[in-house]
Give the backbone structure.
Amino acid sequence: MTDEFLCQLCMRPIPKSQRDAHHLIPKSRGGVDTVILHRLCHRQVHATLTESQLARNYSTIEALKGHPEIAKFIEWISDKPTHIRAAIKRSRDKGFL
């Protein structure tokens, strides 16, 4: 039996210390369902999208993967080590999509 999880966004293995539960619909909007993401991927989602945007338009993994900035991030991170740490910049367009 393995203790390995795959990030539902980038599909890479997640070290135990880097696992975050992401609410597909934010808790503040009544969401309860979660998926396991790399901490870095989770931070990217919240740096890119507001809670309103997440609840309204990006409440599935497929929708998140379809967002241009997140798709670009997934492409960038896909060949990086699973334990990578990187600075995440807040999107200049956050709140305007």
In short: The first strand starts at residue 5 and ends at 6. Helices lie at 39-48, 51-57, 61-66, 68-77. The first helix runs from residue 39 to 48.
